[in-house]
Amino acid sequence: MNLDDLAVFDVLRRARVARIATVSRSGRPHVNPLYFVLGNGRIYLGTVDRTLAALNIKADPRVTILFNIEREPSDSRVLRIHGTAVVSTDPKLCRWYVVRDIRKYFMNRRGLWNVLTHARLLPAVRRFISSGEKGNECVIEVRPEEAELLTAPSGLSSS
Amino acid sequence: MTSRKEMNMTLRDVRVKRVTLNVEEVDARDLLLRVPRACVAFITDDGPQAEPVNVRFKDDHYLVGIPSRAASHLTVGEEVVLVVDDGVQFFDLRAIYVRGHVQPLGEIEGPNSDSFWFEVQPMRTVAWDYARIREVPDES
What we know:
The complex is a heterodimer of chains A (about 160) and B (about 140). With about 160 residues, chain A is of the alpha+beta class. Chain A has one domain (about 5-150): Pnp Oxidase, Chain A (Roll). Chain A is about 30% helix and about 35% strand. Chain A has a six-stranded antiparallel barrel. The radius of gyration of chain A is 16 Å and the shape is globular. Chain B has one domain (about 30-135): Electron Transport, Fmn-binding Protein, Chain A (Pnp Oxidase, Chain A), CATH 2.30.110. Chain B has helices at about 5-15, 30-35, 70; strands at about 15-20, 20-25, 35-45, 45-50, 55-60, 60-65, 80-85, 95-105, 115-130, 135. In chain B, the strands form two sheets. In chain B, strands 2, 3, 4, 5, 6, 7, 8 and 9 form an eight-stranded antiparallel beta sheet that branches. Chain B has a two-stranded antiparallel ribbon with strand order 1-10. At the A-B interface, strand 1, strand 2, strand 4, strand 5 and helix 4 of A face strand 3, strand 4, strand 6 and strand 7 of B.
């Protein structure tokens, strides 16, 4: 299966959070939920360059990503994509990502409501982002190589 | 004139705080009871793998049910990472992250009998909750 497959694209279009598994230089696993956007046959995930995900990809580009349809718990499909990734701090790509991330996650009724109801936290978010504690903004660009549709184990409300 | 003591206090005041999303694991433990989404990551010859899993949290033990087709990739003592997460909107994002080692349990009867169950013996557990973002004393 590839990203052009209708069933694959359907899950990617509905999914909101990607769980990206990576391996460290010393061979240790890691998995982390991240926001993502699609474009040019690639999957782009936003993070900062000192996170384990980014550091691991710099050491070993192989990744596996899981996608659930979070808003439809009765839909047990889980899309798994294997691919290779690069970490980019290119300001142009980062801006491209941020614009699409904001459109996808914030410029809609649910996203705006979520921000408005947590407006008191925005100064802390701004300090968190600007502190650079975890490094500089970056984008993980994933080139999908293999896709498979799984069924989530039964007994969960979703996943 | 500023005394050394006052200067030290000023410097300490500047450095004492950092912003964190982390919470105590016990504050996110409801995720382990209702398990919105869960996956486990491990390493094979083909690289990092991720598998959707069932999770039961029983008597402070992390029990993980992995589809039988994937169980052959795991060995006793192997390092894995379990993530249980929830939320879509920014301030709804929460998770528990458990890095640990595989300990076998064998088959568990019930609705998930097609799963192979094992315990993750935790080495490190982290939980985060974006709605709890806050300043905390910097003890680093």
